[in-house]
Description:
By secondary structure, the chain is α+β, with helices and mostly antiparallel strands. The chain is built from five helices and eight strands, in the order H-E-E-H-H-E-H-E-E-E-E-H-E. Strand 5 and strand 6 form a beta hairpin. The N and C termini lie close together (about 10 Å). The model has no long low-confidence stretch (mean pLDDT about 95).
Amino acid sequence: xxxxxxxxxxxxxxxxxxxxxxxxxxxxxxxxxxxxxxxxxxxxxxxxxxxxxxxxxxxxxxxxxxxxxxxxxxxxxxxxxxxxxxxxxxxxxxxxxxxxxxxxxxxxxxxxxxxxxxxxxxxxxxxxxxxxxxxxxxxxxxxxxxxxxxxxxxxxxxxxxxxxxxxxxxxx
Length: 172
């Protein structure tokens, strides 16, 4: 798959509503396309089945949603995700799964913010000393960096964190 199509449902660009706006849907779409494997089940994840409605409930934050047709398409997309629980490794269990993560695993940081699945995404990076860290672009912007805190501490320090979703890229 071409990297630029990974952001679109089924790899097809067909307007604003075809973008994968919720990261958990990016994972499930990537699984259907053979691009990633959701590691949640094998890591002992719990299901987060809260409905995703952040975009439609914060319509004013998304200029594209001023258009009624686009708004309706996004609302339909959100409803279509209702049966797809996210596989969440709770914050207090991240330390117990770190040994099973690999450099390059995609980490999505889950949140308790109503209607939203994740607030940030990054990659796992095991340093020379064997410590699992977070390779990410800081929330404030700037250059990509390796976080100073080990992964469990990094997750615990995120405000309203509920845990992580983990996907492993399938190469070749």
